[in-house]
Design a protein that fits this description.
The protein is built from seven helices and no strands. It is mainly α and about 130 residues long. The protein binds heme C.
Length: about 130
């Protein structure tokens, strides 16, 4: 009986440490594998896209990711990243944000920006 209670306690502890959702707090969240596909997007691919599409205006990928907290990124990327699209209305990149290409990019971008956001201690392997 004691063993069952111990196992159950361990299970609850482990699942609380490893459960991560869009609003997760980083104290209780492990570093996601940079090279592996997550269920939503791919962090490494998001890094590549950031460097290609965002760096020229928002600085290095480290500066870019640290622009916002995990919750703020989550809000910006809700509903097909519509709030991020709105932020770029009447800028020279408005077309990109409304394109099919951006619709293919935004999940990977979210994974990258969210993983290395302001309230995360995580740093990308290269910060350029
Ligand atoms: C041509 C320049 C340009 C490019 C490229 C660009 N942005 Fe922006 N971005 C802006 C401007 C201008 C604003 C609105 C002013 C501001 O808030 O900085 C903005 C706003 C933002 C904001 C909101 C900032 C805030 O505090 O409200 C975020 C987040 C953002 N951009 C992320 C991105 C991401 C991610 C990419 C790449 C997919 C990107 N931007 C590409 C120019 C750019």
């Amino acid at each position: 009986m004691l063993l069952i209670k111990l196992l159950l306690g361990l299970f609850i502890f482990v699942s609380s440490v490893f459960s991560c959702d869009g609003e997760r707090s980083f104290e209780s969240c492990k570093l996601l594998p940079y090279y592996e596909e997550t269920t939503y997007g791919n962090i490494k691919q998001g890094h590549v896209i950031y460097k290609k599409e965002c760096r020229k205006c928002h600085g290095s990928s480290l500066e870019g990711a640290k622009m916002h907290t995990s919750h703020e990124w989550w809000l910006l990327f809700q509903d097909n990243a519509q709030n991020l699209v709105i932020k770029h209305h009447e800028t020279s990149v408005e077309e990109y944000f409304k394109s099919e290409k951006f619709r293919e990019h935004y999940r990977d971008l979210y994974e990258f920006l969210h993983e290395y956001c302001k309230d995360s201690p995580n740093l990308p392997p290269t910060t350029g």
